[in-house]
Design brief:
The complex is a heterodimer of chains A (105) and B (223). Chain A has 105 residues and is mainly alpha-helical. Chain A has four helices and two strands; from the N terminus they run ααββαα. Chain A has a domain at 65-105. Chain B is 73% helix and 0% strand. The chains are: A mainly alpha (105), B mainly alpha (223). Chains A and B meet through helix 1, helix 2, helix 3 and helix 4 of A and helix 2, helix 3, helix 4, helix 5 and helix 6 of B.
């Protein structure tokens, strides 16, 4: 079992590094046109937005309940109203924690 | 050391404080990751080594969780890899920030947060500084957290009770918000997020987020 585990960890580690390093490696070999560079920047924003949405509203493959989405929504409105970063982050955690304490799933 | 100092010197105190906050929060989540792993019956070496060599939180939780639930280690590695594919387009986007020297280390330390912090800065020097500060800060805190959690056990067993699972998307949202002022980016991001949400119940973790890239076709098609 331990041998299998070690190999599995190595596969995950090497594969993950490969994904991370492929971009910088490729970009150092080929000249990327400005239009593509802009698209890559937008692509990163799209991925981050998708990470936000799936993390806020889902818990793995099932719905996240109400406490977390409400906490993230409150933080989102505060961020949109240009509240300080600290206030945004702490509000997400505090609102969610209080709702859970009150028994909201 | 002097190079690091000069790189990070481009940042004001504000962003540095924000980065420290995020790194500390990640450290607490790392604590629970370490505790959950040993609680599931793994030796303390596993969460610690996994954190150092993989360094991608979501895939680590998934890897440990799947094996603890009786899954095969290889299936768990494949599931973890699916979650981590998004680092490929991230790497394409932040290649400039990583630059020539330190590319290997900088790639290994890539996280959603470091990419988001870099993107939120207005010029190249600050992007580079924010990326490195966040990457190093999170690497140190996450691994110390995992180490402490693995050996000290459950001081904080369930970070959900602290609402920390809500802090992660809030951090990324606050950082991605400025780039959503651009209409093309906003259209693509909203469409992509909707696609990811619809796909989430049906596809394994990681793939819905990748599918979101189809949102890029929206502004391109309109031109």
């Amino acid at each position: 079992m331990t041998g299998e585990l070690v190999i599995a960890i190595a596969v995950l580690a090497v594969g993950t590094f490969g994904f991370r390093f492929a971009g910088p490696l490729l970009r150092s070999r080929i000249e990327v046109p400005v239009r593509v560079r802009t698209l890559l920047g937008i692509g990163a924003a799209v991925l981050l937005a998708a990470v936000v949405a799936t993390n806020a509203l889902a818990d793995g493959q099932s719905p996240a309940g109400f406490a977390k989405p409400i906490g993230v929504a409150v933080a989102g409105v505060l961020a949109w109203r240009k509240a300080p970063f600290l206030v945004v982050v702490v509000s997400a955690a505090v609102v969610t924690a209080l709702l859970r304490l009150a028994g909201v799933p | 050391m002097r190079t690091i100092h000069r790189t990070l010197g481009a940042l004001d105190r504000g962003p540095l404080r924000d980065i420290a906050l995020v790194a500390l929060a990640d450290g607490v989540v790392g604590l629970s990751y370490g505790a959950i792993s040993t609680g599931a019956g793994f030796g303390p070496w596993l969460p610690v080594v996994l954190s150092l060599v993989v360094f991608a939180g979501a895939s680590q939780f998934l890897f440990v969780g799947l094996i603890a639930a009786g899954g095969s280690p290889f299936a768990a590695a494949v599931a973890g890899l699916l979650v981590n594919i998004r680092h490929l387009p991230f790497g394409m986007a932040v290649a400039d920030v990583l630059g020539g020297r330190g590319r290997v280390l900088g790639s290994h330390l890539m996280t959603d947060e470091s990419v988001a912090f870099a993107m939120a800065q207005e010029n190249a020097r600050r992007r580079r500084a924010a990326y490195w500060a966040c990457a190093i800060g999170i690497f140190v805190c996450w691994n110390l957290g995992a180490l402490a959690g693995a050996f000290a056990g459950t001081v904080i067993g369930d970070t959900d009770a602290l609402g920390l699972d809500a802090a992660f998307p809030a951090v990324l949202f606050a950082l991605v918000l400025p780039s959503l002022r651009d209409r093309d980016t906003r259209n693509a991001a909203v469409t992509g997020a909707a696609i990811a949400l619809v796909a989430t119940p049906f596809l394994p973790a990681g793939l819905p987020v990748l599918l979101a890239l189809a949102g890029l076709l929206v502004p391109a098609g309109r031109r």
